[in-house]
Amino acid sequence: MAGHAASQHAGTRAWPWLLVALLACAIALSWLAHLHARLPADLWLARRVQDLPGALEGPAKAIRFVTSTETVLGLGALLVVAALSARRWRLAAYCGCTLVLLPALQSGLKQVVDRPRPAPGLVDVRDTFTSSSFPSGHVMSGTVLFALIAVAAWQSPMPGYARRSLAWGCGALAALNGLANVYMGVHWPSDVVGGYLWA
Predict the structure, then answer these.
(1) Rounded CA separation 148/167 (Å)
(2) 107's torsion region: left (phi>0), alpha (psi -120 to 50) or beta?
(3) 122 in helix, strand or coil?
(4) pLDDT, tens only, 81-132
(5) Helix H segments across the chain?
(6) Which residues have a Cβ under 8 Å from the Cβ of 166 and sit 6 or more positions away?
């Protein structure tokens, strides 16, 4: 029992350091993206992903629709309302603050880094976009939404198997979201990694 409590306490102490490490990686990658229109492996990886079957275009567009910042804010607001209805004040406050900060951080990062989108001569651009490339806003917004849903599910009174299934489903959707944005030719892989790190 004491060993379990000690390992739990050590895990709690490790979280701040993990967040600091992720933030450092996000800042370093942002600086590299500011300096370079693409990183060395970006073009090769993008072309490999775009070689996947054409039948993926429909699902990729659907994922991009669900993970647009506007849709994420709408779904996130529903999550806040659900948390308030269940009297889960802390979760509602956390989700609300996150959703307020998300668009400002995302827009600010895009303006500061100011990286151009992949050029049609290099990749097959299969969707439209309206802002700079780094970080991927769809990946950043989508990952935040899926993380909030996973946290809400994990803390809910649902049976354990349902909580685990929902958390794993959110993780799978977050992973597919990154793939979809590269497949559609609107982001370099490093934009996607930046979206995950900043989320």
Answers:
(1) 10
(2) alpha
(3) coil
(4) 998 998 989 989 989 999 999 999 999 999 999 999 999 989 999 888 888 9
(5) 2-35, 42-50, 57-66, 69-85, 89-113, 137-154, 160-183, 189-198
(6) 149, 150, 153, 158
